[in-house]
Structures are given as C-alpha cells and as structure tokens.
Amino acid sequence: MSEAVDWGPIRELARRVFIERTRLALTTEVKALLKRTASEVGISDTEAESALATEEGALGLLSEESRRIREGSRRLMDALHRMYQHKDKGDFGSAREEMRGVLKAEVVPHYRALAQGQLEAMPDEP
Q1: CA–CA gap between residue 37 and residue 40 (Å, rounded)
Q2: What is the pTM of this model?
C-alpha cells in the first residue's frame, strides 16, 4: 500500500464513542468513514457492509478497526525497535526475523507494506 493513510478521523470517532460515551450516529459520512477504514485495515467490503446494517454491528466494526490500528502500530513499532537493536549489533539475520514476524501476524496492509519495505531495504551484511 503506497498511499498514505489518515486514521485521525477514525481515532477521533472511537474516542468520542468509547471514551466520551457519545452515541454512534450512522450518518452517511460515518458509514463512509467506517467502510473506507475497514478496507484500510484488512476487513472485507462484505463484512463491513454487513456490520453497517445495524448500530450494534457498526460499533463492533469501529471497535475492530481501532483495535487493528492500535495493535498493528504497537506490533510494528516494537519490532522496529528490536530490529534496530539487532542491526546495531551487526545481527542482520535477527533483524530480518523481526520484520518477518510482523508479516506473519499483521493483517493491516499499511503496516505490512512498511514491514516489507524494511525487509527489502535491509542489506545482507553490516
């Protein structure tokens, strides 16, 4: 995925709904945001459309999207930190394994692309 993502609006919506306890109003704009974000975090259009049929389903979709963004970010950042530690020690095999681990676990295309880019850019030796 080469284009930039802007998850600010979905994070803001999740904050309002889950922290401030604001009711999720399924407006045309909110539905479009949830559907767009679903595809960006690896949720199929069919699954998103089904979830958007009810307020309960939409809440579940928002929760899952938020979880994937949060956990994927944490997974990638932690792996990058360990990767750089391995690279600093000259252990490029272990550094590559960190990114391979992200690719095995990650479903968010943006995070997968970042991990793949790190893996492809890594030299074989120091």
Answers
A1: 5
A2: 0.90
